[in-house]
Automatic annotation (TrEMBL):
<dbReference type="GO" id="GO:0140359">
    <property type="term" value="F:ABC-type transporter activity"/>
</dbReference>
<protein>
    <submittedName>
        <fullName>ABC transporter ATP-binding protein</fullName>
    </submittedName>
</protein>
<keyword id="KW-0813">Transport</keyword>
<keyword id="KW-0067">ATP-binding</keyword>
<dbReference type="GO" id="GO:0016887">
    <property type="term" value="F:ATP hydrolysis activity"/>
</dbReference>
<feature type="domain" description="ABC transporter">
    <location>
        <begin position="49"/>
        <end position="269"/>
    </location>
</feature>
<keyword id="KW-0547">Nucleotide-binding</keyword>
<dbReference type="InterPro" id="IPR050683">
    <property type="entry name" value="Bact_Polysacc_Export_ATP-bd"/>
</dbReference>
<dbReference type="Pfam" id="PF00005">
    <property type="entry name" value="ABC_tran"/>
</dbReference>
<dbReference type="InterPro" id="IPR029439">
    <property type="entry name" value="Wzt_C"/>
</dbReference>
<dbReference type="InterPro" id="IPR003593">
    <property type="entry name" value="AAA+_ATPase"/>
</dbReference>
<dbReference type="InterPro" id="IPR015860">
    <property type="entry name" value="ABC_transpr_TagH-like"/>
</dbReference>
<comment type="similarity">
    <text>Belongs to the ABC transporter superfamily.</text>
</comment>
<dbReference type="GO" id="GO:0005524">
    <property type="term" value="F:ATP binding"/>
</dbReference>
<dbReference type="GO" id="GO:0016020">
    <property type="term" value="C:membrane"/>
</dbReference>
<dbReference type="InterPro" id="IPR003439">
    <property type="entry name" value="ABC_transporter-like_ATP-bd"/>
</dbReference>
<dbReference type="InterPro" id="IPR027417">
    <property type="entry name" value="P-loop_NTPase"/>
</dbReference>
Length: 432
């Protein structure tokens, strides 16, 4: 195990739904007697897989079942899967927050875990005091923390509030400081759950860069859970895919992400999506909001070829008279990596209580072969004067590009491998 930082063998975690205990005194005594004799828990032999989409018949659920894998020292392991697949449960076991029901784990080195916003922080202590407290929990001496303190504060960007109790921090400030402590106090193993989603885009980029640095330059081991397939591909060397508490696939990061997208992410072939009254990820004024978006000239299975324009019919509803607003869209791959964006000028207009249709025609799109989704926004302003978003809708319509011209396919694949981003210059937006 000299080169193995983490070894997991037959790991399982079972929970009982509802009340704690077996339900009867005799069954509780039976469980206690088995444990005293070093025998397997007799009630762990029953239970169902953790499929949250079905009701089930048993009160016992395996959050994890028979998980085995190795993580080499200096490796960055990406862990992906749908919500409820068992990712966070496994990290809590590795972090020794909870104990496994079956199996065993072997770990070489100190572990720093960032499982939730503010993990290991005391709300009544200041940021400065929590840095020292968290460092001590990680086994660092005061001298080691002193040497790293300025770097931690600088990276977190909360210097102005470092002597303020952290209960007054925003969730973003919390996670900034918590990640900085974990990353700079040099644990041998860093475990990061989806908490980075709380930070803004700039901070997420800093965190991903930092994790790359500590892995490649310092040889530290990282376990990274994320729903961002682009981030997993970017920083991880290997990966595992989890489904219903079990290991579904493992391999390189690219192999795992590609397998996940191909086999687990449902490709939505709808040609129209109704958005009025639908929940939004961003809580905005919705002064001008999206009512619906559809492909105006749909093709079979939303599959476009090289020369076909992508045409959208966008219906907006306004609460105010507005003589100048803008409409924009972005296109991403299914692994969430960005492909390109477009924003109109502020030449669009709409009247109060009006429902108005706009045609968006994307010409000569230069998209490489693959599957994509469209997100859209409406608002006012520009990059120079500042922007105000009225409404943003994410992942509205999905489509696929399949080239018929082999030569052009090869040229566009080269284009994307070199540049990776498309400048949508030939876009027309007009009202009906």
């Amino acid at each position: 195990m000299s080169n193995i930082a983490i070894k997991v063998e037959g790991l399982g975690k079972q929970y009982r739904l509802g009340e704690i205990g077996t339900g009867t005194i005799s069954n509780d005594l039976n469980r206690w007697w088995s444990r005293m004799r070093g025998k397997e828990d007799p009630f762990a032999k029953i239970g169902e897989v953790n499929d949250r989409t079905v009701k089930g018949n048993s009160d016992y659920v395996w959050a994890l079942r028979d998980i085995s894998f190795d993580v080499k020292a200096g490796e960055v392991l990406g862990i992906v899967g749908r919500n409820g697949a068992g990712k966070s449960t496994m990290l809590k076991i590795l972090s020794k927050v909870t104990a496994p029901s079956t199996g065993k784990i072997k770990i070489q080195g100190r572990i720093a875990s960032l499982l939730e916003v503010g993990t290991g922080f005391h709300p009544d202590l200041t940021g400065r005091e929590n840095v020292y407290l968290n460092g001590a929990i990680l086994g660092m001496s005061k001298g080691e923390i002193n040497r790293k303190f300025d770097e931690i504060v600088d990276f977190s960007g909360v210097e102005r509030y470092i002597d303020t109790p952290v209960k007054r921090y925003s969730s973003g400030m919390y996670v900034r400081l918590a990640f900085a402590v974990s990353a700079f106090l040099e644990p041998e193993i860093l475990i990061v759950d989806e908490v980075l989603a709380v930070g803004d885009a700039e901070f997420q980029k800093k965190c991903l860069g930092r994790m790359k640095d500590v892995s490649r330059n310092d040889g530290r081991t990282i376990l990274f859970v994320s729903h961002s397939m682009a981030a997993v591909k970017n920083i991880c060397t290997t990966g595992i895919l989890m489904k219903n508490g079990q290991l579904a696939f493992q391999g390189t990061a690219d192999e795992v992400v590609d397998y996940y997208i191909t086999n687990f992410l449902q490709f939505n072939s709808d040609t129209k999506v109704d958005l009025l009254g639908a929940p939004r990820e961003y809580d905005l004024s919705r002064t001008i909001e999206f009512k619906s978006i559809e492909f105006l000239e749909p093709v079979e299975n939303n599959m476009y070829s090289t020369g076909e324009d992508i045409v959208l019919l966008v219906t907006l509803k306004s609460k105010v008279d507005r003589d100048a607003f803008r409409l924009g869209f972005s296109i991403n791959k299914l692994d969430e990596s960005p492909v390109g964006t477009f924003f109109s000028g502020e030449e669009l207009s709409i009247r109060k209580n009006e429902e108005k249709n706009f045609i968006v025609r994307i010409k000569n799109h230069q998209l490489a072969k693959g599957q994509y989704y469209i997100s859209m926004s409406t608002g006012i302003g520009n990059e120079l004067t500042g922007t105000t978003e009225y409404d943003i809708v994410l992942k509205t319509l999905f489509f696929e590009i399949a080239y018929k011209d082999l030569l052009k396919t090869q040229m566009m694949t080269l284009w994307h491998s070199e540049w990776g981003y498309v400048n949508f210059k030939n876009v027309e937006i007009k009202s009906l």
